[in-house]
Amino acid sequence: MQKAPTQVKVVLLGDSGVGKSSLVLRFVADNFKNDADATIGASYMGKILQFNDKMIKFNIWDTAGQERYHSLAKMYYRDANAAIMVYDITKRDSFEGLKRWHKELQEFGPKDIVVTIAGNKEDLVETEAVPQEEAKEYSKSIGALYRKTSAKTNYGVEQVFRDIATKMCPDLEAQAPAARPSGTISLQPKPTPAGGKKKCC
Amino acid sequence: METPLFLRKKKLFFVFTSAAKPVWTRYGSETDLSTFIGSLAAILYKFQNYYTGIQDSLRYLRTADMYVVFLCTEALFYVCISKGKDSLESLYNQLRMLHTKVISTLTDNITTMLISRPSYDARNLMGGTHSALDYLIRTTAVSPSMLDAFMPVPMLAQHRSQIQLSFKSHLDDDLLYGFIMTSTSIIYRYCRKGENIHHIDTSLLFNMLASHSSLRSTMSWTPICLPNFSDKGFVYAYITFLQDSQVGLALLSDNSAAFKNLKACGDAIETEIRGLLPIIEESVKSIPYSVSICGIKEFKHFIYMTKAVDQYTMSGFTPSTRDFLPEMPIDIYKRTLRRYFAAYKLSNIPEFFKGNYTKIDTYKNEQIVALRTNEYVLFASLSSMLPAAAVVQLTTQLLRWLKSQEQDFFIMR
């Protein structure tokens, strides 16, 4: 019997035009728009991913990148389980912007938030402005996961979310369906033991 | 010197700060325009210096084929250069709406901030709003903005009250305002008991929904400042579209943490009005409607507004989409609208308006009637061949018919 999925609240942060909404659209609806309109405020979408015998429901808050919305982002990441900080690999500024976002998360975000950095627009790798090594180094230095993505070509998108799930529930991948003792234990792993809210959105 | 490309456009709009820093421009890039905007600002200051001590500033400049209109607010300056035939009043209304939209985007805190730091570069703050501002300009250019009202779609009162019922049976303490709208029309509006909702705030929300396609693809929780509710901060809008439809539901709250509650409330309303979708879609398609529905063949066009609900309705043309029927081509409509403006103008002067105002203007190809009382405003266009007595009699007949249809034309309380 299927259990109710574990709820994971994910928030996307990053400068405007880096492709946050496109990543979400690709992940949730497997769709891509070339002339996507700027997000207003924040939009919400949900998607369930299946991991062997376990389901994770991602409640995704995609925030607007425009400067005037920065002060409002807190409202969305305050009680998030994970943050995806997105930059555009062809725009140096958008990478620099991550540092500000990270600082803010450290200051106001939940202590145990899982942070992932997504270097988006991998399809434009020819005009890359941020060396991958540097991005990886930075991710490591702040204890974040790192992945290159392309919402356009669907490169690495779902993997970003799988990474988050694995990091939050380390037993996910290891847990093979057959290995599970029948109906005895298998309590839902608690990735946020410090009383962090798991129900979200 | 060669004229820059942007200056050849018919209607230009500029927004800048008191330090002549560009904030927004309809055409061209703000950077290329800095010299031009600098000169506009210089003209303003010269005149302001001239008027030192008097609370006034330059209002407009006029040449043979051009108006340059200025709107000075505390910290932001708005300029429109129009080579079209728009009246001064309608250009002012457009500039005022533009200012309202800026406040709606940034709250009035921008004023405080720019007063203390006039050279602050506010361009980035307006990022991503170009399409909304442009849409605002396009729609206000053809709206009867002198009416202080908005236009809902006509719908049988019994259907509209079914929507009303679904709102009333799922109220939440956090719900301040609620709307059913598409990107082209407003279908229903709810307002918390004891609160009021201003028609400008209604139009601002509509403008946001109509001009940002990103709102249509997902569920959003979005801040918007409704200046007539409060210009000091944001209210929050939960916006979603009914599955597989163009019909949107917007629920607003003054509590920024109300998303969950409003979503639950929205889900319940959505389930209930799902059955009404075909009716809603049908009513959206019903505009623009032909003037002939009034059953009086002498009329070419009418606009009718009721103060009690701050709504208007008009035949033949829809300002929000600029859609028109063959009976009212856009150029003819624009001309008629200018004539309505002209006929209405005097009614704003207390000596001419003592609770009742009637004006009939005769042109070569039409007669314009403008009626204004404390309850309603009526504009109509009739054939120029009719004698005055007939015009009066037909107008009375039209008025009687419109009054009898109010329940279907408007969103009643």
UniProtKB/TrEMBL annotation, chain A:
Annotated region described as Disordered, given as residue ranges: 175-201
Record flagged with keyword Endoplasmic reticulum: no
Domain of life: Eukaryota
GO molecular function, one term: GTP binding
Alphabetic keyword roster: Nucleotide-binding
Classification via SUPFAM superfamilies: P-loop containing nucleoside triphosphate hydrolases
Keyword Nucleotide-binding applies: yes
Name of the protein this chain belongs to: Uncharacterized protein
Origin species: Blepharisma stoltei
UniProtKB/TrEMBL annotation, chain B:
The organism's place on the tree of life at top rank: Eukaryota
Domain FUZ/MON1/HPS1 third Longin, residue spans: 301-406
GO BP, one annotated term: vesicle-mediated transport
Limits of the FUZ/MON1/HPS1 first Longin domain: 11-136
Location of the FUZ/MON1/HPS1 second Longin domain: 174-267
Name of the protein in question: Vacuolar fusion protein MON1 homolog
Species: Blepharisma stoltei
